[in-house]
What we know:
single chain, alpha/beta, 7-stranded mixed beta sheet, elongated
Amino acid sequence: xxxxxxxxxxxxxxxxxFHPDTSHGHIVAMLQRRAERGIVLDLGxxxxxxxxxxxxxxxxxxxxxxxxxxxxxxxxRGFGAHPIDLRRLEGLGATLDAAVAGQPGSPGVTAVLALDxxxxxxxxxxxxxxxxxxxxxxxVPLLGLSVPNVTHRDVAVKLLNARWELTATGLLxxxxxxxxxxATLAAITAACGLVETDxxxxxxxxxxxxxxxxxxxxxxxxxxxxxxxxxxxxxxxxGATYQFVRLYEPAAVPAVAPPLPILDPAADPDVRIAxxxxxxxxxxxxxxxxxxxDAQTSTAWELVGHDxxxxxxxxxxxxxxxxxxxxxRWVEQFVEAGSSWHGMVLRCAPTDSPDDRSxxxxxxxxxxxxxxxxxxxxxxxPVAALGALGRDLGDTSATALHRLLRDVAPYCGVHDTGVPxxxxxxxxxxxxxxxxxxxxxxxxxxxxxxLVLVERWIVDExxxxxxxxxxxxxxxxxxxxxxxxxxxxxxxNDWLNAELRRTPVRMLxxxxxRPGGPTA
Length: 520
């Protein structure tokens, strides 16, 4: 299904069989349940494996392709077939009109398909816009697209191993010119005025890129493979998606084709803190928080609602709970740390107020008991890291924030600024009902499908090491006590010898010669 012209009009083409579990089968299933029976225009049809299934379902199938050989074969099967070159879009509307006009007496066009096609184009966004514009002008209700998912777990993991291996067909087909993620497909279709109405993606846990088979990166039976699979699964639900198969309807197609989505490096925000008042904060708590923020030595903060933090251009987000007071350097010390310790959770120290609770200066991933005394305001979470790990601040309770810390810390690490910046006069994790339940002995263990960097056996081994270290400390203390006792005995012995040296030798001999005593 190559949308580009071959070197010869008689060039061979790939013959694909129809299978219900492929992108073709999924499109047919979606059209059967969503579309009125009418003409289906299949752009870049290739060997047209879905021609007969669509005809059997009551549709009128017309295939369009650049390859004259496949068009001749399609006509021999009794279907309409017309040439099209999707690289040259100036005459696209006229070409589609001509294809429809060749079916006199047929119902109107109910769908246009471009399956495994636009990834072969230099400007796929321009082609999608041109197709959507024609559909809107002709009141065609549905557009079906399928594209391979370049972020399939196999491809993502192999890139970490410096492998980008082209194949004759599949995810990295050598003829692909553009590559799609779920986000880029959504961006292009939305910019073209298309609204998704249905999806039926193809799923493959093992793709054609699952090579070499013995690689420890690709198998979840290995600790490394399990970690990489877990990390990929955090990003979105498409780690095993082989193809995105979607139906759209043209809603508000713009007059001009949108630009291709390109990352703007300048879009990264400066280090700024989005400050969120906890959901259980009272109006008085919020007023106090506002006063503390107004007194800050740094203006790199923004107070936002607990459900709007992801919409602001801030690098970190922090939640302030009831009764928690901020020192004037609270923002400043987070900004200074965030400028150097990128991607890490930031954690400050308690102020010196006598009412403050204390918590360990250093955070340990495998032992977070002490961290449960950390108030929410002592933490600043990197927004980009939360997005990369599929986490958010949907719940701003103390228990939820502690679980979030325990969940992301193995991946991000925690940088302790050491700066006293928070007065923890309000409730901490241990004070919250249910807060004493850590939800399992692994970071994030209480969440269904929680994914962690630290394997359970490592956590258990660390716990055993801590126990052995405590026993060694007791033994060392006993040895120190014995050594001190030995030193005391040595001092007493030295004193006794010194005293004996001062005693007259004659007196000692006389004492030794007393009756009953030893003789010299």
